[in-house]
Amino acid sequence: MTTKRTGRTAAKSVPGLRPHVLVLHGPNLNLLGSREPKHYGLATLDDINRALTARGDDAGAQVETFQHNHEGALIDRIHQAARDHVDFIVINPAGYTHTSVALRDALAGTAIPFVEVHLSNIYSRETFRHHSYFSDLAVGVISGLGAQGYELALEYALRHLQDRTPHGSQKTEKAH
Ligand code: DQA
Questions:
Q1: What is the rounded distance in angstroms from the CA atom of residue 33 to the CA atom of residue 105?
Q2: Which ligand 1 atom is the nearest neighbour of the CA of 39?
Q3: What is the pTM of this model?
Q4: How far apart, in whole angstroms, are the C-alpha atoms of residue 117 and residue 127?
Q5: What's the pLDDT tens digit per position in 107-152?
Q6: Cα angle, residue 51 at apex, residues 75 and 166 outer, rounded to 5°
Q7: Alpha-carbon gap, residue 156 to 9, rounded angstroms
Q8: Residue of 48, 116, 118 to mutate, ligand 1, most atoms within 8 A of C-beta
Q9: Pair 131, 100: CB distance under 8 Å
Q10: CATH architecture of 2-7+16-162
Q11: Where are the chain's structural domains?
């Protein structure tokens, strides 16, 4: 498959299997709930992850979540995602948004389509947050909608994957 925006060749998903989405959280997002609530809200990372995996279960999709404070661990997880035939990534690169060529290269190298999410509106904050190493590669960017941004990104991924694979039609057939 070739991604719409970039023309890059995407890692192949396994046809017939349920949609597989990976949600990646970058550094310091393990502190959500207590970390600068005026920017990031009061939901904990567990709250967010639970809601996303539950939504995945409802939709018949596999939703995995992963948070790490180290760049290399996030890169390794993206490489693993390609080996696991992950169809779509939702990523909040957190502080690495503004610094990490290496994390960008991991997403470019695996060509798994992704949506970039930020809890806060990075464009209404300090100027060093206005630049992202990810946005031009992303299918889309959601910034400033709090935890709901992850949910909207996941909805997009689910809809996009059901339209693309025979999975959605299989579900419809079973329902009749
Ligand atoms: C963030 C915004 C980044 O600038 C910041 O470094 C974060 C979180 C957000 O979700 O709003 O850690 O990605």
A1: 30
A2: 11
A3: 0.87
A4: 18
A5: 999 999 999 999 999 999 999 999 999 999 999 999 999 999 999 9
A6: 75
A7: 20
A8: 118
A9: no
A10: 3-Layer(aba) Sandwich (3.40)
A11: 2-7+16-162
